Amino acid sequence: MTSPPLTDHAPAAEVGLLGASPIDFYRHTMSSSNLLRYLKIKVHHLIQDYDWARISVTAGYDRHCMVSAHEKNDKLFNWQRPTAHVQGNHLIVKCFPGVDYVHHYALIIATYLNMVGRYRGQVDYRLPSEHACRSAVDRLDIDASTDDLIVVGWGLERFVNGTTWVHGPGHAWQRTNIDGRRVLYLGYLHSIWGDVAGRVVARLATLGARRVIYVGKVGSLDPRIAPNTCLATGNSSVLSDGQVTWPDFFGGLAAGQSDVRSGVHVTSPSILFEDTNWLARQHGHRFVDPEIGHMGRAAHTAGIEFGFLHVISNNLARHYPEDLSNERLHTVVERRAQLLDRIHEIIRLRLRSIPATQASEGTNA
Which InterPro entries does this one have (predicted)? Predict the structure, then answer.
């Protein structure tokens, strides 16, 4: 007799464990074939290649156990994926500590296994404590009190000259001078998914940051916006417990650009929740990603400026050839590089209105 499958957020056999159930992939805003291709990019090779009696997703940044063969380390940031530790027929998957990230990755595994006919209720997860999440982020230790702006995120290699990055645990940074303004670029080697990103902003504020912007990718909820053709910005996001606004670093500057779209953002803890029913509830909202609302709320709480300027990478409301499953196409990479250059131009334009500091010039001054 087989045991019944665990349901998501239902208690598992051990205290503190939750069972992960697959989503109904037929209702997802991505087609089944594209969703499966996306999941294969994310799922650890030990799960794709072998069957396990039990798979547990936990919080832990551990690069000393089994690294996924699907990691693509041809970029500087956001390339490290969850790692795995084998205990007999039990696979323990370790994610950087974050409530959303652990849950999201458990859903990824359960849904992948279901789509390939191998799900048997064998996936569980344990959410990390706030202390564990904060301790992981607090390993960042940079004096940001003299920086005019901190740029966090993706594609930062295009914003700086040279390749001299100072590496810390799971992150790297480079400081430069733009027209007399001191700018710190900070990127993470691992994902800062969901609530992790909010803690990054809170940590930067503690370290003296006054202005933080986030550069990344968002999905469009507006069917008229084709992926990889323009940028997104705004100063408001809807989270599960309410809407948040923040003091916007860009003011109206970014939104006034011809290739930038603005609107209300939605913070979603996992793209796997973004099915057709979810989409039908998003009337009046224009963009979605897992991080922006958490970062804006942290900035609002800390009393610092925050802004986001993102590439619109996919569209949930209308099918386009480009989505999250084929981001490595040459045409996609090329267009995103051009959009990153535009982001840098807009950042520089905004910096000109900030009084110049006396900070010394140099990459890591």
Answer: Nucleoside_phosphorylase_sf
Going from N- to C-terminal start, the domains of the chain cover: 18-132, 138-351
Q: Which of 64, 139, 66 lies closest to 97, judged by CA?
A: 139
Question: Do residues 248 and 306 lie in contact, with contact meaning Cβ atoms separated by under 8 Å?
Answer: yes
User: Per-residue pLDDT tens for 322-331?
Assistant: 998 998 899 9
Q: What is the pLDDT of residues 301-345, one digit of tens each?
A: 999 999 999 999 999 999 999 998 998 899 999 999 999 999 999
Radius of gyration, alpha carbons of the chain: 20
pLDDT tens profile 12-56 = 446 589 999 999 999 999 999 999 999 999 999 999 999 999 999
Q: What is the DSSP letter of 129?
A: P
Closest C-alpha among 101, 160, 153 to residue 125: 101
For the entire predicted model, the pTM comes to 0.93
Contact indicator for 310, 215 with CB cutoff of 8 Å: yes
End-to-end CA distance of the chain: 66
Structure tokens that stand for 26 in this block: 């037929």
